[in-house]
């Protein structure tokens, strides 16, 4: 299942096949498809990520976040939306700051390329059998 963070992008997990010397590996790996306003991304390159049509994507669950943080739902939603707006504004003004997601990875811009770098632990939690292959292709 994927999670859509409106104005930022979609986090999900995909399965991919990779051919080794003697066998085919099917691995699960995290992906992030960027969905920031195009005006903010002028002069920036970013990888195009295709999320298969069979992956179920749901919007960010503000009710769950509210319970997890003990803040009212409207406060959590406003905070997330304002943070995304601030990050978009910084990108538009060529302030290439990193955006860290706890236990997932970092959205960063280096040499005018904006991409998501997933933490080692995030990848290995998804794929324990062929984690090295998943890491190489993430």
How would you summarize what this structure contains?
The protein has 138 residues and is α+β, with helices and mostly antiparallel strands. Helix content is 30%, strand content 32%. It has 4 helices and 7 strands.
Instruction: Output mean pLDDT.
Output: 86
Low-confidence stretches: none
Radius of gyration: 16 Å
Strand neighbour order, sheet with most strands: 3-2-1-4
Main structural class: alpha+beta
| Helical fraction | 25-40%
The span between the termini is: 18 Å
> What is the overall shape?
globular
Order of helices and strands: EEEEHHEEEHH
Count of distinct strands = 7
Report on the biggest sheet.
4 strands, mixed
If helices are DSSP runs of H or I spanning 4 or more residues, what is the number of helices? 4
Amount of beta strand? 25-35%
The count of domains is 1
Task: List the keywords.
alpha+beta; single chain; four-stranded mixed sheet; CCDC81_HU_dom_2; 4 helices; 138 residues
């Amino acid at each position: 299942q994927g999670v859509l963070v409106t104005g930022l992008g979609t986090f999900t997990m995909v399965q991919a096949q990779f051919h080794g010397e003697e066998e085919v590996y099917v691995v699960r790996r995290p992906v992030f498809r960027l969905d920031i306003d195009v005006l903010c991304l002028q002069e920036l390159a970013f990888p195009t990520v295709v999320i298969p049509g069979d992956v179920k994507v749901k919007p960010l669950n503000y009710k769950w976040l509210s319970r997890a943080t003990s803040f009212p739902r409207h406060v959590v939603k406003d905070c997330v939306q304002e943070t995304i707006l601030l990050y978009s504004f910084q990108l538009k003004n060529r302030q290439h700051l990193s955006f860290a997601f706890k236990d997932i990875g970092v959205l960063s811009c280096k040499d005018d390329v904006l991409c998501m770098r997933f933490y080692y632990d995030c990848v290995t939690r998804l794929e324990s059998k062929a984690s090295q292959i998943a890491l190489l292709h993430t």
